[in-house]
Amino acid sequence: MDAMTDMGTLDRSITDICPEYTVRKDLVGAVKGNALVPTYVLEYLLSKYATTTDQASIDAGVDRVRTILADNYVHREEANLIQSKIREKGRYQVIDKVQVALNEKTDQYEATFENLGISRVIVDPETVRKNPKLLVTGIWCLCMLVYAYSGEKNEVPWRLHRLMPVQMSHDDREHYLAVRERFTAGEWIDLLMQSVGFNPSLFSDRAKLLHLVRMIPFVERNYNLIELGPKGTGKSHIYSEFSPHGMLISGGEVTVAKLFVNNTTGRPGLVGFWDVVAFDEFAGRAKKAGKDLVDIMKNYMANKSFSRGVSVMQAEASMVFVGNTSHNVPYMLKNSDLFEELPAQYHDPAFLDRIHYYLPGWEFEQIRSEMFTHGYGFVVDYLAEILHNQRDVDYGAAFERYFTLSSTLSTRDKDAIRKTFSGLMKLIYPSGNATPEQMEPLLRCAIEGRKRVKDQLCRIDSTMAEVDFSYTRAGSADPIAVRTLEEADYPDLYWRDRPDAAASIAAEDATLFAPLLTDSDTSASAESRGIDAVAQAGSAEQSDDTAQTQVPAAEVSEPVPVTDGEVSQSSTAEPEERKLTPIERWAAQAKEGHIEFREDQRGVTYAKLFGPYIAGAKEISIKDPYIRKSYQVRNFAEFLETVFNYTDRSDEVHVHLITGYTEAQYIDEQIDELNTLQTVFGQLGIVFTYEFDESGHDRSIVSDIGWRIILGRGLDIYQPFDGNWLNPLTRQQRLRRVKAFEVTYVREM
Fold it and tell me: Boundaries of each MITD1 C-terminal phospholipase D-like domain copy (predicted)?
């Protein structure tokens, strides 16, 4: 069957316009096996043997690449075996990384084979002329080696009979620019997303742009980028697999000699050889870094140079710092700053001010299998080589005909914005031709990333002057402000020391949404109305005499979750005028009692059952031996949603589950589902842990605000229902019918 029948419009365009430099991205996993070959090498081979759209031809090409890897790829531990094969057979074909240097004493080019472990192999000058990258970083090649031992002194028996690069070895920008002209901007961005392996249909326009920011260090010289966020979002992947011009190293392995220069030998470090040096696992407050290293890094990041003894050396390598965060965004904004995870030596205004862009890692989703594309994209080595050669181009001033940055911005602020803008232009509009309407989103993105850096610097260093991150359009004097997304999401926490700024953002939002609000909406918040309904119902409905068949006091109405703004506004009121926060109002409805529910009742929700008894808690322990099957794990997920809704988002809430194992054949699935809950709720500030205990049968919820809830049936209170996502019962607990069960509320403090 022809694969074209399953292709979308974009894939058809890609394969029609540039078939020789594209590959179907899902084929890489099919051929890699245990070969430690970079992705760009595999894609190069696939582009040679499986670039067709005919499925039968693709299958044959994949088999061909598998055979080449199995027969010719050199594993380091098998180097002696391969050397023996070359000797015994007289000639043998290998895939290895080859680097060439000129031996001045013999006036000959000599090659070193990285995995095979041989060197001084004579290379024909014509081969070097055709593949100049052999002399720079080395190239992965498919080589025919011949063994010819003569017994002469100092002679090397290895002979290079034939060399074929299996990665790009020349510049093809002219063709690349011609190809770009045949795609719209949206199509081109989607093509770039597919080229790095992602399915663009699963990402918003903003998410796509942030993914492209990860690529800027490859296309922009001396670009300093930091990305901090939850683990598992692919922060380091692009720096290890995307380009032969990038180097990913552990943040704990950095030394002055390794990074900049070895003063003993005079040999330059990584910044002298690579376009991008990325520091993985850079975060971690317990980590240490030498003052001399930090000082040299600060000088390099600012001046693009470093000292070697008495001389000064220039380099072009971009610096990328990636690391994991331990807390969610509101927690960091409330308690510290968005750089809180950095080692003390790097949590330094002088160092951080040299960062051009803070990429918000918390906006990237955890990597899931469905995010990967099955469509076509550029062979990554082809794209990487194009980006490498575009580092010579500068579009940093291209927007200045149409837009003017605020005069309050510092030189470093403006330089950072220009470099980010230039990088995005080279990625999306590589010819430099773009309209003001096309440039403006790129400019706003560039401003936002630098603003995130500067706003946090103002928290860390009180002497740092705040500036206005805005711009004006040509012909207009009206400034257009740029806000970070977390600034809009959590204004009171973001501007915790500037209530005037938070109030200004809130006023902007109120104006924005005013047409959608009714008179009643503007006179009283939904939260207040919900809470008042709870309070009124509470006094009428719960007593020891009537509790047997009724929903508890706090159940009659489900309050809308609290916002950070409400908590802050309440806490800043004068003591004599202080009103209860929404969380305090909910907690005030909790009362001791025992309730029995009839079978097939409706209107019973976790919010009504548990909300007031966990409102404001920071530690919750739940025992339920039957969080085993998928629907029971779903019930627990809904309980975690209730915890999320009834606790302060600027605090972390720890929830510990004690449950039992499911049947042996399903244990892996049970653990996978619980681990997924850990991941997704961890990003929301719910720190979920669990343990298995086969001896317990009790069912209870205990919170650190003094309540114990004894659960007759645990969380499994609902009758079975159709789990089709179109069924409203999957989202509305109050529509579900319940099993007969009992709940007891006990005050413990």
Answer: 603-747
